[in-house]
Design goal:
Shape: globular
Keywords: One-carbon metabolism, Pyridoxal phosphate, Transferase
GO biological process, one term: glycine biosynthetic process from serine
Catalytic activity: (6R)-5,10-methylene-5,6,7,8-tetrahydrofolate + glycine + H2O = (6S)-5,6,7,8-tetrahydrofolate + L-serine
Radius of gyration: 22 Å
Number of strands: 17
EC number: 2.1.2.1
Strand content: 5-15%
Bound molecules: pyridoxal-5'-phosphate
Strand order of the largest sheet: 4-12-11-10-9-5-6
Distance between the termini: 35 Å
Largest sheet: 7 strands, mixed
GO molecular function: glycine hydroxymethyltransferase activity; pyridoxal phosphate binding
Helix content: 40-55%
Number of helices: 17
């Protein structure tokens, strides 16, 4: 018997435990979702066995007639899902994930050490947009390119476009990157287009977090203004783990994006495409064109608003004051606590979210905020009232975290973690009670 439970009980058991964890907890990580059974079936299929370096009709391996059909279908569905005219836009569906997709774009249109500007990581940007510290170039993007991040206006929590414009005029970037991992608002694409044009830069949008919302047209459309749009496929889009790069077919700044990007993906940075992922992605992109998907995305936004409103009523400060999309960023510092302690206590209560830096933070390890997203629990069927209840459960967790902080032996995070983990932790009953109600 070759079934997993017989062939490898150890791995089978780990998967069983992880499945149980996923289904028992309140899954509020903004970048996660529950993909469909149909997508999982495609991902777990024989498509994983096949090598197919190259593009449909131009492969370096034989036996690809069905893979060609699959990848072409996936491309067509990708363009249709994002309402794109195939004469104006093309897509590469082979990127292995979001970070490789971004690096492939940089490799395609930049030379080593060309200048880029993306949103700073502590202000909500992604590592792959060029993060570096004063001491270290952290991401490959900042190692191979010169990065000058733009930031939020700390008083409003919104992107400081005036500062972006002033800095771009001095820094002369070749590429400006819109998009973020922890930004609750839409980007001002027309403004960014104007800034990019004024300095002769490409404009790219990394819509990883919001691609499901873009497909459903419930947030602004980056395709109207950008030259290149990248995305992951496993977040709000609800597909398998992967990436895509959309590009304009007309040359931009003298560059044939189609050729440059396709060559950067293969042979530039990747070998054989993950055909099982492309199969799962095609399934996801068919669903992304359905009325059900549009209703789902509308509910994602409505749920996030309900969550934001209830948190506001409970006295929480939200970065930017609210949300236009699927996530809220809560500054918990005014409550007398930090994101790391809140994340830990909520984790013990089966509420899964992540600590996140907020504008003005000093430490990345003990940041002042938490990020909460609505896509996953909306997939599980939550409506506004369940998200109101979720806000209240989070608030209970914060009260426990505050009490634990005041009782811990010292002021350090380590003291807190040790205290919480000790068998004599006096708030164990409160925590178990919260966990039971969550589960
Ligand atoms: N871009 C953005 C905006 C993201 O938030 C993320 C992941 O969180 C990525 C890219 C990277 O995607 P991956 O983790 O698939 O490399």
């Amino acid at each position: 018997d070759h079934a997993l439970n017989n062939a490898d009980p150890e791995v089978h058991d780990i998967i069983r435990k992880e499945k149980e964890r996923q289904f028992k907890s309140l899954e509020l990580i903004a970048s996660e979702n529950f993909t469909s059974r149909a997508v999982m079936e495609a991902v777990g299929s024989c498509l994983t066995n096949k090598y197919s370096e190259g593009l449909p009709g131009k492969r370096y391996y034989g036996g690809n007639e069905h893979i060609d059909e699959l990848e072409t279908l996936c491309q067509e569905r990708a363009l249709a899902a994002f309402h794109l005219d195939g004469n104006k836009w093309g897509v590469n569906v082979q990127p292995l994930s979001g970070s490789p997709a971004n690096f492939e774009v940089y490799t395609a249109i930049l030379k080593p050490h060309d200048r880029i500007m993306g949103l700073d990581l502590p202000h909500g940007g992604h590592l792959s947009h060029g993060f570096m510290t004063p001491k270290r170039r952290v991401s490959g993007t900042s190692i191979y390119f010169e990065s000058m991040p733009y930031r939020l206006d700390e008083s409003t929590g919104l992107v400081d476009y005036d500062m972006l414009e002033k800095t771009a005029i001095l820094f002369r970037p070749k590429l400006i990157i819109a998009g973020a991992s922890a930004y609750p608002r839409d980007f001002d694409y027309p403004r960014m287009r104007k800034i990019a044009d004024s300095v002769g830069a490409f404009l790219m949008m990394d819509m990883a977090h919001i691609s499901g919302l873009v497909a459903a047209s419930v947030v602004g459309d980056p395709f109207e203004y950008c030259d290149v749009v990248t995305t992951t496929t496993h977040k709000s889009l609800r597909g398998p783990r992967g990436g895509m790069i959309f590009f304009r077919k007309e040359p931009v700044l003298g560059v044939d994006l189609e050729t440059a990007i396709n060559n950067a993906v293969f042979p530039g940075l990747q070998g054989g495409p993950h055909n099982h992922t492309i199969g799962g992605l095609a399934v996801c992109l068919k669903h992304a064109q359905s009325p059900a998907f549009k209703s789902y995305q509308k509910q994602v936004i409505a749920n996030c608003r309900a969550l934001a409103q209830r948190l506001g009523e409970l006295g929480y400060k939200l970065v930017s004051g609210g949300s236009d999309n699927h996530l809220v960023l809560v500054d918990v510092r005014p409550m007398g606590i930090d994101g790391a302690r809140v994340e830990k206590i909520l984790d013990l209560a089966s509420i899964t979210l992540n600590k996140n830096s907020v504008p003005g933070d000093k430490s990345a390890l003990v940041p002042g905020g938490i990020r909460i997203g609505s896509p996953a629990m909306t997939t599980r069927g939550f409506k506004e009232s369940e998200f109101v209840a979720t806000a209240e459960l989070i608030h209970e967790g914060v009260q426990i975290a505050l009490e634990a902080k005041s009782l811990a032996s010292g002021p350090k995070l380590q003291d807190f973690l040790k205290f919480v983990a000790s068998p004599e932790f006096p708030l164990q009953d409160k925590l178990s009670d919260l966990r039971k109600r969550v589960e």
